[in-house]
């Protein structure tokens, strides 16, 4: 690779937008049996065939990647309550719905048009009117005339015109599309505002010295993927986390855990954890283990903001581990490496030294990413893992003021001037941070195509060290000034 090609590759090809990352989150809410799951399955399609039927873990919110026409989004289903027959059902339903509303950009509120509006529907409407910015009302099971009265009834909820929907027969999806479309545009615009493409104007106001940009306030759970080889301990780890901080526990047995994701509050931080273990176990049955485990890992990585690469201390840095860690970096995700089963290691000090050495050698592209030793079995190290996840996420979102960057650049240039191919020195004029998630920087310079890769590396490593940015990829692009 020439420096330019490499820089361009770093900048462009693996950005999340270009791989079609979900643009918004739609939650389907409503009382049991109105047809939420049926619509969910229709929107998500075959991909959901990968469900784990491992019992014993409470599933509350399940989610998947939805397609509707040219829209791609995340859909959340509040199923999992059907089996709850205790008399606290209403309270549980309310809590679950509130959580779904909190994590969603848009709520699809569903009633059963054959039944009409019930008091529980009224309760939902009340929550949604208070809490949700965007509500789409759907009167489901609306195929045929039997539903006419119920559809009319739905107007009375005060949430606007109901869509006549039949999730089972696939009717009314055009209307759903028409209502989602303008909102989707709005969210897309907003996402662009959050990370402007290239903004090379020097930022006059950005003169403050304080580099500790606070955590962005989130209204959505932090998305974490736990990836790693089979038997690394992913299920054990997730169950341990769940066991320690389960939000919605229930007496019901036999509810299956959704293989795609779980939402929990881990030490008071809402997180959505993508679990590839469940999918893999199912895959084994289907004898497509290798193929599926790689593509599941890929999918989880694309969903995630922070990727936890879980290694087995006894056999760390296997080929598959390296591949997934590299993938996470290329996709621009924050990365935390966790070495599991630390409880059965002796000679811990020496082992740790060797691990760090191997890490630097085998994954230089992840330089500075935290390496945490844990035991999923005993729970030891999970606090540090939590802290590392939060920290990596913070770095991933960091924004460095332009003025500080340019002061820094001046120092870097003095310390180690750029090369002068054919006697003409490459001039680096100024730089700015053009995006976050992960941090991306643009340097305006003469002859960007002549810049050797080693100088880019010098700058990236310098940024990482001087601005204290472990655990996140850093992108650097050189641009010629024209
Ligand atoms: P949930 O509890 O809200 O997730 O509801 P489900 O999706 O499990 O559906 C409850 C029942 O309603 C099932 O028997 C479905 O087959 C049925 N159902 C779902 N959508 C429709 C529909 O559009 N029309 C009719 N007639 N039945 C539906
Ligand atoms: P997965 O395939 O990545 O989901 O791995 P599992 O969670 O199924 O774990 C594989 C095996 O490793 C099981 O026998 C676990 O009991 C064991 N295991 C997982 N975590 C630990 C740990 O921290 N310490 C020890 N000693 N064993 C563990």
UniProtKB/TrEMBL annotation:
GO terms for biological process: ribosome biogenesis. Gene3D superfamilies: 3.30.300.20, P-loop containing nucleotide triphosphate hydrolases. GTP 1 binds at residues 30-37, 77-81, 140-143. Belongs to the TRAFAC class TrmE-Era-EngA-EngB-Septin-like GTPase superfamily. EngA (Der) GTPase family. GTPase that plays an essential role in the late steps of ribosome biogenesis. Keywords: GTP-binding, Nucleotide-binding, Repeat, Ribosome biogenesis. CDD domains: EngA1, EngA2. This is GTPase Der. GO terms for molecular function: GTP binding. It comes from the Bacteria. GTP 2 binds at residues 228-235, 275-279, 340-343. Associates with the 50S ribosomal subunit. Residues 24-188, 222-397 form the EngA-type G domain. Coiled coil: none annotated.
């Amino acid at each position: 690779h020439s420096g330019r090609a490499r820089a361009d590759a770093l900048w462009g090809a693996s950005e999340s937008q270009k791989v079609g990352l979900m643009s918004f989150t739609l939650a389907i809410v409503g009382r049991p049996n109105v047809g939420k799951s049926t619509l969910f399955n229709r929107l998500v399609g075959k991909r959901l065939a990968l469900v784990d039927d491992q019992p014993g873990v409470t599933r509350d919110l399940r989610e998947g990647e939805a397609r509707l026409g040219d829209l791609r989004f995340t859909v959340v289903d509040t199923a999992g309550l059907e089996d709850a027959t205790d008399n606290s059902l209403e309270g549980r339903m309310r809590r679950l719905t509130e959580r779904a509303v909190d994590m969603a950009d848009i709520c699809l509120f569903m009633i059963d048009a054959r039944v009409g509006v019930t008091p529980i529907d009224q309760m939902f409407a009340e929550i949604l009117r208070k809490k949700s910015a965007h509500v789409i009302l759907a009167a489901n099971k609306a195929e045929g005339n039997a539903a006419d009265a119920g559809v009319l009834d739905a107007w009375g909820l005060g949430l606007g015109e109901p869509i006549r929907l039949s999730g089972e027969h696939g009717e009314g999806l055009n209307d759903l599309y028409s209502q989602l479309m303008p909102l989707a545009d709005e969210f897309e615009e907003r996402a662009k505002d959050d990370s402007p493409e290239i903004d090379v104007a020097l930022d006059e106001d950005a003169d403050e010295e304080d580099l500790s940009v606070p955590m962005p306030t989130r209204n959505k759970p932090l998305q974490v993927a736990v990836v790693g080889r089979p038997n690394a301990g992913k299920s054990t780890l997730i169950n341990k986390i769940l066991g320690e901080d389960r939000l919605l526990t229930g007496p019901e047995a036999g509810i299956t855990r959704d293989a795609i994701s779980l939402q929990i509050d881990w030490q008071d931080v809402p997180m959505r954890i993508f679990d590839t273990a469940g999918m893999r176990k199912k895959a084994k049955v289907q004898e497509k283990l290798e193929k599926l485990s790689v593509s599941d890992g890929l999918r989880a990585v694309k969903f995630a903001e922070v990727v936890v690469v879980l290694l087995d201390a006894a056999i760390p840095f296997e080929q598959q581990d390296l591949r997934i860690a590299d993938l996470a970096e290329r996709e621009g995700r924050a990365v935390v490496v966790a070495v599991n089963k630390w409880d059965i290691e002796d000679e811990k000090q020496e082992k740790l030294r060797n691990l760090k050495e191997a890490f630097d050698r085998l994954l230089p592209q992840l330089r500075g990413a935290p390496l945490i030793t844990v035991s999923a079995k005993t729970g030891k190290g999970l606090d540090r893992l939590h802290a590392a996840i939060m920290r990596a996420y913070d770095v991933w979102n960091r924004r460095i003021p332009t003025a500080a960057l340019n002061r820094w650049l001046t120092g870097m240039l003095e310390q180690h001037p750029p090369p002068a191919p054919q006697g003409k020195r490459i001039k680096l004029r100024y730089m700015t941070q053009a995006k976050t998630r992960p941090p991306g920087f643009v340097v305006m310079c003469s002859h960007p195509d002549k810049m050797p890769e080693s100088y880019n590396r010098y700058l990236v490593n310098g940024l990482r060290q001087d601005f204290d940015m472990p655990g996140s990829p850093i992108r650097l692009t050189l641009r010629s000034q024209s």
